[in-house]
Amino acid sequence: MSGVLPPADIALTEADAERAFADMLDGEPSDNEIARFLSDLSDRGERAEEIAGAALAMRKRLIPIEAPDNAIDVCGTGGDGHHTLNVSTAVSLIVAACGVPVAKHGNRAASSKAGAADTLEALGLDMDAAGRTAEKTLAEIGICFLFAKNHHPAMARIQPIRQKLGKRTIFNLMGPLSNPARVRRQLIGIARPAYVPIYAEAMARLGTERAFIVSGDEGLDELSLDEGNEMADVQGREVRMRRVDASEAGLTHAPVEAIRGGDAMHNAKALEALLMGAPGPYRDAVLFNSAGALLVAGVVESWSEGVEEAGEAIDKGLAKALLACWIDTAK
């Protein structure tokens, strides 16, 4: 198969998918061949074996960092089109303030107005320095930002092809599965509810201590306050599907429009207000997702306990203080 990608109408085994993506990442096929393969694969729908194989190829080519054994990641795959305020960014700060190390893997905005990096920069964090000092800040204060570009050099050739295609491909699913800190516990949001069991099976194939794969019914790539959420609880090789909604965490339902975001400065001001204790749907959305992350981390036993712990981290000023410390340390 070296240098020649298979037709996408053929279901690939995990091993075949790993070889195909290894070829792509190593630069063997032509740009047109890669574009054709990614587009066709997206059109027919990626299978769990193919997602797992692609992730294995990426994992073998990333630049890793040292991380605490109990580190987690909280992120979404993006591309949901809802342009919400930065929920996973706030969750990362709050969960880290609760004593759980967070190795946040991400990048600047691709389809939204303000990604995690853009908003953190607007808050005063030097993102280039945060990338260089990621291992240090994770060890010393329990949080870091892992810029994808710093840890996945093999993606340099793929990015222009993806941009030219202008459509969602399997690589939109790869970020959470290829965290450079090699975290074993994750809260992952994806923008396609019907894909939750497929993605969860891929995660189970790759091996994990525990992960929640979630998607709001409206296609939100995080736990939604609206009608409800599809959720897969992955523990080792076992996947359990369930439904979860805001009421289970003692929170009020709200439409996605209630947490609509804006540009980086707009989202940064909202996050600052949140850390100061501002009430409302944004706080509730962050508390809901923080509770999920704390459950995954194994430090709480229920959604309501997670909401309580996260709320205390905000109201006692712990999350705000952590952000200030991060800004000071990442230099």
Report a brief summary of the structure.
The chain is α/β, with parallel strands linked by helices and 331 residues long.
List keywords for this structure.
single chain, alpha/beta, Pyrimidine Nucleoside Phosphorylase, Chain A, domain 2, 331 residues, 7 strands
Structure description:
This protein is of the alpha/beta class. The chain is built from 14 helices and seven strands. It has helices spanning about 15-25, 30-45, 50-60, 85-95, 115-120, 125-130, 135-140, 150, 160-165, 195-205, 265-275, 280-295, 305-315, 320-330; strands at about 70-75, 100-105, 145, 185-190, 210-215, 230-235, 240-245. Helix 1 packs across helix 3 (about 50-60) and helix 3 (about 50-60) crosses helix 10. The radius of gyration is 19 Å and the shape is globular. Its EC number is 2.4.2.18. Homodimer. Keywords: Amino-acid biosynthesis, Aromatic amino acid biosynthesis, Glycosyltransferase, Magnesium, Metal-binding, Transferase, Tryptophan biosynthesis. It catalyses: N-(5-phospho-beta-D-ribosyl)anthranilate + diphosphate = 5-phospho-alpha-D-ribose 1-diphosphate + anthranilate.
